[in-house]
Amino acid sequence: LIPGTEYQISVHAIKGSNEGKPSHATGVTDIDSPNNLVTRDITETTVTVMWEKVRAEIDGYILAYSSAEGSSEEIHVGADATSYQLTSLKPGVLYTIFLWAYKGSRMSKKISSEAETELDAPTNVLVREVTEDSARVSWDRVQAEIDGYILSYSSADGSSDEVQVEADSTSYQFSHLRPGVAYTVYIWAIKGSRSSRKATTKTETEIDAPRNLKAFDVMRNSAAITWKPPQAQIDGYIISYRPEDDSRQTVEKNCMAGQDRFSLSGLATGKKYIVTLIAYRGSKRSKVVETIFVTGVAYPFPMDCTQIMSNGNMKSGVYTIYVANDQKKPMQVYCDMTTDGGGWIVFQKRNSGKLSFMKRWRQYVEGFGELTDEFWLGLANIHALTNTSTMYEVRFDLGLGSEHAYAIYDDFKIGSAKQKFKLTIGNYRGNAGDAMTYHQGRSFTTIDSDNDIALGNCAFTHSGAWWYKNCHLANLNGKFEDNRHSM
């Protein structure tokens, strides 16, 4: 019979040629079920269902599916349909799909098939924290229940690697990469023998910096630098160098990728230089490497401020000198690099009067005050400086601001402590007047060591200490701004 068809059935008895009165009945065959229910074109969120049509005249088909997470609503499909695409499914889920035909309130038997959606691929794959030899890959987790992820990379130079990470991971750091290399990174989810699509992204590691930057052949006005090249392929190097104390004098040079040394010229004597080196390729820059060196000087152990100046130091300030150029005899002094051409050792300075110069013998021998303010260098130091083979001038600068006078004597030295630091002074020139010749040959006097020829102690009488005679024409260690003289 034909499925789903209403039949009129008649039955009557016969005997010979005689027939009885017929009895009638009506019967309807069941609707037949669809055949060959199959699934195909399965993706992460869709399944296409196909079947063979029923023979019965029907109103349509009903599709439904279920999984461990529950059942769907029924989906009505037209009577002529032989396929249907299920959408909005979840990735990596096993679905049981049911199909049956219906006509009015009558239903065929259900047929079923199974389909498991594909695992979804990781999304939003990014590479960050890229260095010369490492890169961190991050991603958004998949929806499917999985065993884990597999990450791999490949590069044009043939290097590759593959690693598996846990299902709850959202990032992984690749290490031991090569500097300046372009990498393609892949990631996919796995569950048993099944794999998702591969998600991919690209990155390029940073250029590594040159190594072992060193200075050599350092001279007074030149030096050379050498380095070991980076591993990365580069276009060249950028070299810059400058004195440590003046960034305005920065010099920048470029050199080719094949170079591993460079000569620096036009350097200042006795200066500390900072050299930086960067490798580059296109717009990419390596980290900066740096080295420091000091150019040579004419006087490694300068004996006075003139030699300090010859070494390239042109600013007034505190410097270390070495008596008679002897490394074992260092002395800190204040160098005046501006007055009368500069190069003066300052052994006494007074400009405010806040420091009392009425001191005892021992203090005048050893020195007192601060070299950057008011001070006395010390008789022992002055004796050491003036008793060498070099003849020194002495200069006295008097006054402040526009009211200024000076006196220079073309020879200056003092005797030893046994000689009470006896004064020897040469010929005068200047505009302040010759006051020091009066003190020629005199020993030094303090309030507790009277070596003058006056009846009393000139140091005590005139509140100071000097090479007093009877008593003074110059009293530069006396009471501040007291201009009176006594002879």
From TrEMBL:
* Keywords, in A-Z order: Disulfide bond, EGF-like domain, Extracellular matrix, Glycoprotein, Repeat, Secreted, Signal
Fibrinogen C-terminal domain span:
296-487
Can you give the residue ranges of the Fibronectin type-III domain? 33-120, 121-210, 211-300
**Where is the protein found, in the record's own terms?**
Secreted, Extracellular space, Extracellular matrix
The keyword Plastid belongs to this UniProt entry's keyword annotation: no
Q: What is this protein called?
A: Tenascin-N isoform X3
- Segments passing through the bilayer: none
What gene does the UniProt entry assign to this protein? tnn
Q: Does the keyword ATP-binding apply?
A: no
Name the source's superkingdom. Eukaryota
**Cross-referenced Pfam families, in alphabetical order?**
Fibrinogen_C (PF00147), fn3 (PF00041)
The alphabetized list of GO BP terms reads: regulation of cell adhesion
Q: Give the organism, scientific name.
A: Clarias magur
Q: Which GO terms describe its cellular component?
A: extracellular space; perisynaptic extracellular matrix
Q: What is the lineage of its organism?
A: Eukaryota, Metazoa, Chordata, Craniata, Vertebrata
